[in-house]
TrEMBL record:
Sequence segments annotated as region (Disordered): 77-112, 327-360
Segments of skewed composition (Low complexity): 80-99
Gene Ontology terms: cellular component: endoplasmic reticulum
Protein origin, superkingdom: Eukaryota
CDD domains linked: UAS (cd02958), UBA_TAP-C_like (cd14273), UBX (cd01767)
Protein name: FAS-associated factor 2-B (UBX domain-containing protein 8-B)
Species assigned in the record: Cladocopium goreaui
Gene Ontology biological-process annotations: ERAD pathway
Domain UBX: 383-468
C-alpha cells in the first residue's frame, strides 16, 4: 500500500499501562504500536499477554524487549537440552535466572532427611548457576543487539546484506545495496540528486520471502533501483536499521520506503510500503516518486544555482570590501607619509631658521665686539705725527691720510686702518671698514703682510695703500 508523505517527529515516551485481573488491557496508541512492532519482529513467538509483560519489564523500550526476548530464547534452548520444559510454561513469564523463585520440583524434592551440608552445597550451587546465567544473558543481549540474531547471518549493509538475502531466500539477482551507513547513503543521494530507497528486513516477518523473491528480484524493479535510486538496506534486528525504522515510523516489516534528502537538515518521506508488498505496487510507487523527484530535482538544482550565485556574490562583495580596505589603507599610508614629510620639512625649516638666527646673533655679537675693540683702539691711538705720509683708499673709493714715524711698524698701520672710521676727523664720513681686510700697494701691486717691518723698510712713505676686504671661503 502507498502512503502519503508525512512529517518526521520523535517517538513519544510510553504511557502508563493498566492490566485488570481478568487480563483486559488498556494501552495507549504508542504502546499498541510498540506491541505490534515487537510481535511482528518476533514472528508472534509470544502471545499478547507475554509480549506485554516483556515490554513492561523494559519500560516499553522495543529494542531492549527484542534483545531480552532473543537472549531468553537462547537461554531456554540451553535449558531444554538439559531437561524437558514444563508443559505450557511461558519462557519469560517465569524468572529469567534460577534462584529467583522456587519450582514445585524444588519445593517437594527436599526431604526432611537433607543434611545441613547438602543444603549449603545446594545454595552455593544455585548462586554459582545464577552468576553464570547472568553473564550469559548479558553477553547474549549485547551480541544480539549489535550483531543481530542467527549469529550474524544477515550482513550489516551493502554487499554483505545482499549476499545474506540471496543465501537465505535463494534469489540470485538482487539490486545493489549502498555499501555504508545510513547517513553515508543519505549524503550520497543528496550529492547525486537521487532518491533514497530504504529496505528494512525482518527474518521473522511472514512476507519477507515473497518480498525478496517477487519484488526485489523483479528485473524491472531491480533495473529501476540500480539506475535511478540509492538503495540502502538493513536487518531491523540490528541497531542502526532499527533506529532508521523508528525514524520513518515503520510498524510492519518488510518495509520499503522512499526518502528525499532535501537538505542536510531535512529528510522527507515521500512514499512507503509495509508488510505484504506486491511488485505492481512497488513499481507504481517508484514511478510516482521518480515523477515527483523531477520537480524536487529542479528545485534542488535551482537552490544549488542560487547558493552558487549567493556564494559568488558574497565572494565578490568580500573582494570589493577587501579592495576598499586596501585602498583605505594605502590612502592612510600616503596621508601618513605626507604628514611625516611635511613634519620633516617644517622641522628642517625651523632648524634652518634657528641656525640662521643663531648665526645672525653670532655675527651681530662679533660685529659688536669688533666695533667695541676698534673704538677702544681708536681711543688709544695717538695723534698723527711724523714725516711719512700714507694715503689709504677704501673699497668705497674714499681716501684718508695719516702721518707715521718712519720707524712705525706695519702692524701700527693696520691698527690705524681698522679704526679709521671711529677717529674724530672721520666721524661724519660714513666710513665702513670690513671685518677682515688686507693692505696692498698699488704699484707694484703686492700684499703687505710683514707686520714687524717698518714703514721706512717697506718704503711706504708718500705712497697710496689699498684696503681690500678678504672674503670668507
Amino acid at each position: 500500500m502507498y502512503h502519503k508523505p508525512r512529517d518526521l517527529h520523535p517517538v513519544a515516551g510510553p504511557a502508563a499501562v493498566s492490566i485488570s485481573a481478568t487480563g483486559l488491557m488498556e494501552l495507549s496508541e504508542e504502546q499498541r504500536a510498540s506491541l505490534a512492532l515487537f510481535r511482528e519482529v518476533t514472528a508472534e513467538a509470544r502471545d499478547e499477554a507475554a509480549s506485554i509483560e516483556v515490554l513492561k519489564s523494559c519500560n516499553w523500550n522495543v529494542e531492549q524487549a527484542l534483545s531480552l526476548h532473543w537472549a531468553s530464547h537462547d537461554e531456554d534452548h540451553g535449558a531444554q537440552a538439559r531437561a524437558p520444559a514444563a508443559a505450557g510454561a511461558n519462557p519469560l513469564s517465569a524468572p529469567l535466572l534460577p534462584g529467583h523463585g522456587r519450582s514445585s520440583a524444588a519445593t517437594h524434592g527436599s526431604t526432611a532427611g537433607d543434611s545441613p551440608g547438602s543444603m549449603a552445597y545446594g545454595l552455593f550451587s544455585r548462586i554459582a548457576q545464577g552468576i553464570k546465567q547472568i553473564g550469559f544473558s548479558v553477553l547474549s543481549l549485547v551480541y544480539t543487539f549489535f550483531f543481530g540474531t542467527g549469529g550474524g547471518a544477515l550482513g550489516s549493509s551493502g554487499a554483505a546484506f545482499r549476499r545474506a538475502l540471496q543465501t537465505s531466500y535463494g534469489t540470485p539477482a538482487l539490486p545493489e545495496f549502498h555499501d555504508g551507513s545510513f547517513s553515508q547513503a543519505v549524503t550520497r543521494a543528496r550529492q547525486d540528486l537521487k532518491l533514497l530507497v530504504v529496505y528494512l528486513h525482518s527474518e521473522h516477518a511472514r512476507h519477507s520471502q515473497s518480498v525478496c523473491s517477487d519484488v526485489l528480484a523483479n528485473e524491472v524493479i531491480r533495473t529501476v533501483l540500480d539506475e535511478n535510486f540509492i538503495l540502502w538496506g538493513g536487518d531491523v534486528a540490528r541497531m542502526e536499521a532499527h533506529q532508521v525504522a523508528r525514524m520513518i515510523h515503520a510498524r510492519q516489516f518488510p518495509s520499503f520506503c522512499v526518502l528525499l534528502p532535501a537538505s542536510v537538515e531535512e529528510i522527507r518521506v515521500i512514499g512507503a510500503l509495509h508488510g505484504q508488498i506486491e511488485a505492481e505496487g512497488a513499481q507504481a510507487l517508484l514511478a510516482a516518486c521518480m515523477e515527483e523527484m523531477e520537480t524536487h530535482r529542479a528545485e534542488i538544482v535551482a537552490q544549488q544555482v542560487q547558493r552558487v550565485e549567493d556564494r559568488y556574490l558574497r565572494e565578490q562583495q568580500d573582494r570589493e570590501y577587501q579592495e576598499a580596505l586596501e585602498m583605505d589603507r594605502r590612502r592612510a599610508e600616503e596621508r601618513e607619509a605626507q604628514r611625516r614629510q611635511e613634519e620633516e620639512e617644517r622641522r628642517q625649516a625651523e632648524e634652518e631658521q634657528r641656525k640662521a638666527q643663531e648665526e645672525m646673533e653670532r655675527q651681530l655679537k662679533l660685529q659688536q665686539e669688533l666695533e667695541a675693540k676698534r673704538r677702544s683702539l681708536a681711543a688709544q691711538l695717538q695723534s698723527a705725527s711724523g714725516t711719512a705720509r700714507l694715503a689709504l683708499r677704501l673699497p668705497s673709493g674714499q681716501r684718508v691720510e695719516r702721518k707715521f714715524e718712519p720707524t712705525a711698524t706695519l702692524q701700527e698701520v693696520y691698527d690705524w686702518a681698522s679704526c679709521v672710521a671711529f677717529l674724530p676727523e672721520n666721524s661724519d664720513k660714513g666710513i665702513e671698514i670690513p671685518e677682515r681686510f688686507v693692505l696692498k700697494t698699488s704699484f707694484p701691486a703686492r700684499d703687505l703682510d710683514e707686520m714687524d717691518r717698518t714703514v721706512d723698510e717697506l718704503k711706504l712713505s708718500g705712497t697710496n695703500i689699498l684696503l681690500a676686504a678678504i672674503e670668507d671661503d
